[in-house]
């Protein structure tokens, strides 16, 4: 077992079958783990039906209640490490991340020797489709803010399309990750950066969802704004040796 794509879900019945099959149609073998937070729309049930078609490749972890993106990924990371996966990916269920780009992330780690590969919306200009200009400016501005405070040379620190090597997730103290929304994505990258892992941004085109509802909220954005300050302060008092 080598590649595991973790897809957190909450009410993704309109997208879940198509996104799973798109991953399984790629020329590189990827397992998929769905971490579902008790979706009332039947997302988990649909995954169970698809497991009859892909019994060895499709996995499901069900949790009770909506517990947040960050905790879903931490749950998935621990599951992946326990099962022996080498490369672990974060990807949204709504096709905002093109499944075909998983191969780019895979090659950036396996063939180029990087520890973290980030599917970046901003490494080659602004590559975002179907977002209002206000949200683009907010997202791009967040990157400037994060780089200024943390010193990370990452153009898309809030992005959620990522490949982590096993060593990275074994090194980062997952139980001490504090945030659950955009700040979770920043915190994970900041830890990888402080532990001096090799990070590469891979250009992608991000397309806003066409089906289902966005999980973005003011609370999540506020967590990122204030969370970055806290991360920087905490980093001054921690050791990052491996």
Automatic annotation (TrEMBL):
GO cellular component, one term: membrane
Annotated InterPro entries: DPM1-like (IPR039528), Glyco_trans_2-like (IPR001173), Nucleotide-diphossugar_trans (IPR029044)
Domain Glycosyltransferase 2-like: 5-171
GO molecular function, one term: dolichyl-phosphate beta-D-mannosyltransferase activity
Record keyword Transferase present: yes
Keywords: Glycosyltransferase, Transferase
GO terms of biological process kind: glycolipid biosynthetic process
SUPFAM superfamilies named among the record's database cross-references: Nucleotide-diphospho-sugar transferases (SSF53448)
Transmembrane stretches, start-end: none
Family membership: Belongs to the glycosyltransferase 2 family.
Protein name per UniProt: Polyprenol monophosphomannose synthase
Classification lineage: Bacteria, Pseudomonadati, Bacteroidota, Cytophagia, Cytophagales
């Amino acid at each position: 077992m080598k590649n595991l794509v973790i897809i957190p879900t909450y009410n993704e019945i309109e997208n879940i079958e198509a996104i799973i099959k798109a991953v399984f149609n790629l020329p590189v073998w990827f397992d998929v783990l769905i971490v579902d937070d008790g979706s009332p729309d039947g997302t988990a049930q649909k995954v169970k039906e698809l497991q009859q078609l892909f019994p060895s490749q499709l996995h499901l972890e069900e949790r009770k209640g909506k517990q947040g993106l960050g905790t879903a990924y931490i749950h998935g990371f621990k599951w992946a490490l326990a099962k022996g996966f080498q490369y672990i990916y974060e990807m949204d269920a709504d096709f905002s991340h093109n499944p075909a780009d998983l191969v780019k992330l895979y090659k950036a780690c396996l063939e180029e020797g990087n520890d973290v590969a980030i599917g970046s919306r901003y490494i080659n200009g602004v590559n975002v489709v179907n977002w209002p200009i206000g949200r683009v400016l907010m997202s791009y501005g967040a990157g400037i803010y994060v780089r200024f405070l943390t010193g990370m040379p990452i153009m898309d620190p809030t992005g959620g399309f990522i490949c982590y090597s096993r060593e990275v997730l074994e090194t980062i103290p997952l139980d001490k990750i504090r945030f659950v929304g955009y700040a979770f994505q920043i915190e994970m990258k900041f830890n990888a950066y402080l532990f001096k892992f090799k990070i590469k941004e891979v250009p992608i085109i991000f397309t806003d969802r066409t089906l289902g509802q966005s999980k973005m909220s003011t609370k999540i954005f506020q967590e990122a704004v204030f969370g970055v300050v806290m991360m920087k302060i905490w980093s001054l008092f921690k050791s990052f040796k491996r």
